Amino acid sequence: MATEERSFKTQDFTVPSSGTGETIQVRISEPNLTSENLGLETWAASHILASQLHHIGPKIQFPAPSSDVLPILELGAGTGLVGVTAATLWKQPVVLTDLAPLVPALDANIDLNSEGLRTANTHMEAGTLDWKHPTTLIVKDQQQPQTQAHVIFAADTIYSEEHPELLANVILKWLVKDKEARFIIAYPLRVCYIDYIREMWERLEEGGMEAFEEGREEASQDLFNDERLVEWSVWRWKDI
């Protein structure tokens, strides 16, 4: 059920928490379609990726906490659905990143899910990471000490000709060199962007990574009007 207040709506997304039917609710606030900021919307790729986390998570081994390595980093987080789901299900700290104007909305969605985060005994933050200069992570106007992440998410982040190179460069720089480190991505199968997807795959493979798990899912027609067919894949370093 969605409730409208001012120019925003708040919606509860149902996400699987196990393979036996259990679910969790993730509350997300986003502008109404009449709002000026149409970019801040939860897309099908985010919901599909969030819905895969219950079976991907148990296969990932997280290292002991480190001052240099983030447990989980999300790129182009949008409304934060994937990151909030990961923090809640995997019980690991998550940093959401996107463009600076979107960070307040990410902070708001973190607050909306504070009860679930407390139950999971974990926390989240939101900040910025410039893909063109991906050496500095900024959270609450402060440069963060971490320069790598153990798990990186990206959902529906490839939709221009510059994105394959930029995203691949960020992944190759930020994903820690560890056999358990993972990059997990989902994207709608838009015909006009298939070449961009292929280029991203090629760049990651040339950088020493491999996709070892992948799948396709169709998002619910009740939740999403278009671009419902989504492909996802899980990547790791090939020779570690």
What does this structure look like?
Helix 5 runs parallel beside helix 6. The protein has 6 helices and 12 strands. It has a single domain (38-237), classed as Vaccinia Virus protein VP39 (Rossmann fold), CATH 3.40.50.150. Strand 6 and strand 7 form a beta hairpin. It has helices at residues 44-56, 81-90, 103-112, 114-119, 163-174, 194-206, and strands at residues 3-5, 8-16, 23-31, 69-75, 94-97, 124-129, 137-139, 142-143, 148-155, 182-188, 209-218, 229-237. Helix content is 27%, strand content 32%. The protein is α/β, with parallel strands linked by helices. A 9-stranded mixed beta sheet has the order 8-7-6-5-4-9-10-12-11, sandwiched between helices. It is globular, with a radius of gyration of 17 Å.
Question: What is the CATH architecture assignment?
Answer: 3-Layer(aba) Sandwich
* CATH top level assignment: Alpha Beta
- What structural category arises from helix and sheet content? alpha/beta
Task: Please summarize the sheet with the most strands.
Answer: 9 strands, mixed
**Rg from Cα:** 17 Å
Number of beta-strand segments? 12
Fraction of residues in H or I helices = 25-40%
| Annotated CATH homologous superfamily | Vaccinia Virus protein VP39
Strand order of the largest sheet: 8-7-6-5-4-9-10-12-11
Q: At the third CATH level, what is the topology name?
A: Rossmann fold
Q: Low-confidence runs (pLDDT<50, min 5 residues)? A: 1-5, 33-38
Shape summary: globular
Strand content: 25-35%
For the record, the count of structural domains works out to: 1
Number of helices: 6
